[in-house]
Amino acid sequence: MCPGRVQWEGSARIRLSDLERTLVCGDQEVKAWSEIPFNQARYFLTVFLQDRAYLRPQFEIRGEVLLVNPGERTFSHEVIVTGAPKFFNIKKKRQILHEALTPGLLDEIEGWIRGELRAHGHACPKLSTKADPATGDIRVKVMPGPTFTIASVTQESVDGLGPGALRRFDAFEMDKLFNDDLLELTSRRVEDSGVLQSSFFTWSCPEEIPEPPPAPGEVRLPVAETQPAPGEIPEVDLFQRTFAGKPRLFTIGFGASTEEYGIVRGSWKHARWGENASNFEVSFYGSYRRQQVDISSEWYAFSPLSRWFVQPSVNFTHRYESDYQYISVNSQGALGRTYDNQKIGLRFTAGPNLNFTRTFKGAQPGLTQFLSLRYDFKLMSHYWEYWQEDPRTGFMVSLNGNFGTQSIFSSISAQRFRLEGQYLYNLMGLDPPLLVFGIRGGLMGTLAAQDQVTRDILPPNYKYWLGGSQNLRGFDRQELPNSDGALSAAWASVEVRLAHLLPFWIQPFIFMDVGILGDQAFSFGSPVYFSPGGGLRVASPIGVFRTTFSHGFKTSEADNNPGNTHFQFYITYGEEF
Amino acid sequence: MRRTLRIIWSVLKGVLISALILVLLLAAGAFVVLKWPQVVINEPVFRQLAKVSGRIGWVVTWQGADISVQSKNILHKKLDFAFDDFCAYNRDQTYRACFDRLRLAGELAWLNGGLEILELGPLIMKAGDVKVTLPETPSAPQKEPGLVFLPIPKLLVPERLSHTRFQEISLDFNEIQIVSGDDPPISIKAHLQGEPDERHKIHQLDGKIESGEIGPLRSATVELNLSSESGFSENDWKFETKNSVTLASGARVSGPIRLQLENPERYRIGGDLNYRDGGQALQLSLGGSLEPGKINARLQGRASGMADEVKSVSLQPCSLDWQQQAGNHRRADLTYNCRIEVVPGKIKISDEALKNYIDIPTHVKITASGNVNLELIPGANDPLSGRLKLKIDNIPQGLVTFEGEADVDFAGVPEQYPRGWKLVSTADVSVVLNSFQKLKRTLDKTPYAIPAPFNVFTGEVEFQVKGKVDIAGFQGNLPVTFATRLSSSEETFNTEGKGELKYKYSKKADKSHLTLDLALSEVKLMLPTVKIESPPKLLPDGRYAQDIPEINKMQAPSDFTYEVKVHTTEGAPVKLYSNLARGPIPLNLDITAVPEKTTGTISVGDTRLEVFRRVGQVRKMLVTLADPTEKSTVDGVVGVTYSDYDIEIQVVGPVLRPRVYFTSSPPLDREQIISLLIYGRTFEDLNQDESQSVGAVSGAAADRALALGTLYFLASTPIESLGYNPNTGEFSAKVRLAKGTSLTLGTREGKSQKVGLRQGLGGNWSLSTFVENDSETGEQAGGGMIEWFKRY
């Protein structure tokens, strides 16, 4: 460590940082620090070794040398939590036993406990932790404090943004139990929308440190009440910090996707338009399969606290797929609303949609037009949304479709719908999860006349295919039923994933996909397709890679396509289960 | 008339004849008695006398008597009375004396017109048994004991016995018992023996007194010797005792006491005292002289075993001169001069290394001298006044040199102490650490090693108590000074302190309090070279039940309190030198430390520091220390000047959680300022990571999560990105590594992230991943893009 002065004893060799070594060995460039007495070196080493879980170092001065035997690292043996509420179970926390007993581990345990308590209403918990270097036992004394309800939210002012404009992103309700996870989810929604570049919530807990005088114009919140009147639940006032940034964002870039290979993409967005933070965006997308221009807006035309909005949009698309090719112009004026309670979030839009599609391949070539009522409905549990990047729990249901009739400015009468859902379950409720069980499925159908004329001019986006990484992973992308597609489809997948056990972010999983198709809405025909298989999910820092290997099977040869059962390998980037 | 005369004559004649007959009878009787004294001096006569004596209250009995009267001539007799089993006691036997044998002999003669005792003795009392019961009297108020002159008697044989021949004197008491009230009786055994020489002179009397338990004494044996070369014909006696006393505690006291007449006006006294009680021992030797109005004495001795810290205390020697005051026979002046040597005991040094370096002084020499004016026979109520001068000889020690002296002028009444006492002293005591490096080497391998950067100093440290001292009884004030004159090639640590040490001793508790005003007259200190990296933890994590060695932290005793003010002087701030600063960092301190807390202010003067990759200027930085430390506050302004902007960072509030305000001229948004500070670019030019980092800093600043140290780390370190968790208050930073690479891989385990990541690539470029759902086809696609962005 320090030649001739401080030496490691035993086999351990611990790497110190430059500054650590300076403080232990001395600084030859500064005479005043050139000689560190043994006791000072011992002090610093004890602290530095503590950071590395060497909690029982032995020091011996032998002649002019300080011998340091760091001893064995201490590993956590047992975590004993006292004083916690009944719902709390430390055994749900994984990867804290038999781990190096570092301050980081203690931070992690405290952070997890604090997070659990804050997710259950205890806004101001206090913890006292003691770790025994000899036994590895960690004792955490929890003072959860009372459960709070949310009384109010004060939004930090942003130039041009009306008060209350951010409330539409709330994933929580007023006067309901405080839940820190929902506050974080709310912040993320705000950031994802682009209204603000950064946002988070703070609240005040009773503390002993005196407050400095408020700055001019500073909003000072009352301290959370911890001693309410008998029978009352204490309330907490939230303060939403905002970091707005400039509202206009221009981006242009190039890249690749799993389906379309090379991509060029650009956009211009005004994310904070008007007092209610409406947005307006123009974007283009170009790949050899798809060229698209979108002009859209979410116009919050009503009161700042209203969740209703008007969503006009115009879209120009050229799709060039192996089975079809078309150019589509789509314009829509929809009315939408969002809704959240403490458990779920809902988004709903509906409005007239005018679509012109010129088909070149995949249906009868020619121009079709549709004036339809388009609806879009999405229901998500908050924790499904919260864990979207690391799926583990919650559910999501989406439903969208169109109502169109030939009698009102449409080439044919056709109604389509798409119902999809996903449910994830964290087996044993561990954190991080060990086994994640997932079910997903979809039901799609197009109701249209059965005559051949209608079938011929029905554009590809009214038809359905199965196969691919999204549904039946034992089949090639959109391989089923054939190039003509189907007018109804249903599929379901069951997946069990071993999460957060293997190194390098590797999460193996096995699955079984089942699907069925039909040439009429709600009319399914043989065969039933299924594909068992397995794969790996790699949640790398630059995105999620998924690979699957599966074999497609079918219950009969009724589809007259003998070559569609085979092994199928997929590697995808960015997709989540 | 004749008849009357005849009658008178007849009466006179009768009287004359009667008188003549009586005279003749008396003469005849006297002749008979003188001629044959055994006629009246015999046992029957004595028994008759004893009977008479019994009637008047005193009973005298004996079993047998041998009464011998030799008549050398009619006026020269030799008497010898011997009684067996002789007893004499009063009626209620409060006084009783019995002897197995009592003999008294003598020779008397009528010579030269007077009765002379030609020979006296032998006087023999054998197996005496004496009991005295003292009457119970109400106890008189005890007179305050005071110092008195020892009354020296003139031990001379009376003139009438100057020619007397003395025979043996042998007084033997088996028991002399004195009973007083309900107190345990005092019982002693005594023997006194005197043998005449050939000239029948007794030159010495030897005696021995033995006692059992008397008061605090378990037993005592005193051998007496009273001698006179002239046989007590002249006042030339010597008195010597050999004493051996065992106290009730088991302690033994022994030693001779000598008293000798030097000349008719002067006596010499002397003696030795040996005291031993277990390991405690005292040897005291006294020599001196007494003469009217004057006492001279010399004391010499040694005490040991009193305490572990003090092996022995020796007086070597101590002279006391007591002189009656001229013109005032009631008062005297005492002049004293004592040399005292204290030998420290074995001081336990726990650390092996210290044992090799610390020299325990072998002895401490103190000189106490002065004079006292007091009553000739002083009492507690009598006023006294005088001067005491104490001087401690230079103690050259391995580490420090200690020397000191004190003059005390005092006046007062002992009984009233400290009320009304005048105690004015001048003290000059100094402890000098001559070689700081020696101290450093001494402590180097101990738990009290002097830490860097202080361990390179050379020079000295001095602690001095000097000046007028007001001592009032058991409490007093001592003026103290403290100074360091330490330096090295890079550093200086010169301080000067003045203060006062107050002390108070009482039965309940001793207390002392040091007030010190320490001026840092010139202090220059170096900081180690700090490289840009994540700073290590310097303080132990208190969550571990682990013993952490303290650096030079010593627990002050609870009976010692202090108030030390440490401050810089005007124009001479403490200067810290760091590789991060361009020039010294001037610190002005005004700190007050008491055992419970440290308060005061630390201000940083105009300093140019490398902050935010620019030369920043500390325009104001005032840290106000409070108790507890967490309540300490900061008020500072740091300026960073850009080509177009002048940015000021104002830090106000508690040190651990200050409010941080960012202002600029011309005015910019907070995000813009932070963006400029951290990344040197406008907020709009930041990628998502960077803009979130700015948000984190801004949020942490607004949320008072930026501690002072964190802010400095932020300012002095190239930051890649920052994270702030407002709920935990945790602030984290990803530091840019050398050569521009900084990709820190790692997911934020345990918490979700947004769908799609955006990783900064530098400038306005970023790598983003996305997941896309086609609402038309329901297809989900993921992809990655390299994007250039501009926010405005």
What does this structure look like?
- The complex is a heterodimer of chains A (577) and B (792).
- Chain A starts with 5 loop residues before the first strand and ends with a strand.
- Chain A contains six helices and 26 strands.
- The longest helix of chain A is centred in the first third of the chain and has 16 residues, at 103-118.
- Chain A is 11% helix and 45% strand.
- In chain A, helix 1 packs antiparallel against helix 2.
- Chain B is 12% helix and 53% strand.
- Chain B has a 34-stranded mixed sheet that branches. Chain B has a three-stranded antiparallel sheet with strand order 37-38-39. A two-stranded antiparallel ribbon of chain B has the order 35-36.
- The longest helix of chain B is centred in the N-terminal third of the chain and has 34 residues, at 2-35.
- The model of chain B is unreliable at 142-148, 551-556 and 735-757 (pLDDT under 50).
- In chain B, helix 5 crosses helix 6 (688-702).
Quick synopsis:
The complex is a heterodimer of chains A (577) and B (792). Chain A is 11% helix and 45% strand. Chain A is mainly β and 577 residues long.
How many distinct helices of chain B?
Answer: 7
Number of strands of chain A: 26
* Strand residue content of chain A: 35-45%
- Uncertain spans of chain A: 208-213, 215-226
Structural class of chain A: mainly beta
What is the radius of gyration of chain B? 51 Å
Q: Determine the number of helices of chain A (DSSP H or I, runs of at least 4 residues).
A: 6
Q: Largest inter-chain interface?
A: A-B, 111 and 109 residues
Structural category of chain B: mainly beta
Q: How many strands, which pairing sense, and closed or not: the largest β-sheet of chain A? A: 17 strands, antiparallel
Mean pLDDT of chain B: 78
**What is the first-to-last residue Cα distance of chain B?**
179 Å
Roughly what fraction of the amino acids of chain B lie in strands? Answer: over 45%
Overall radius of gyration of chain A? 30 Å
Instruction: Characterize the largest beta sheet of chain B: strand count, sense, and whether it forms a barrel.
Output: 34 strands, mixed
User: Approximately how much helix is present in the residues of chain B?
Assistant: 10-25%
Return the average pLDDT of chain A rounded to an integer: 87
How many strands in all of chain B? 39
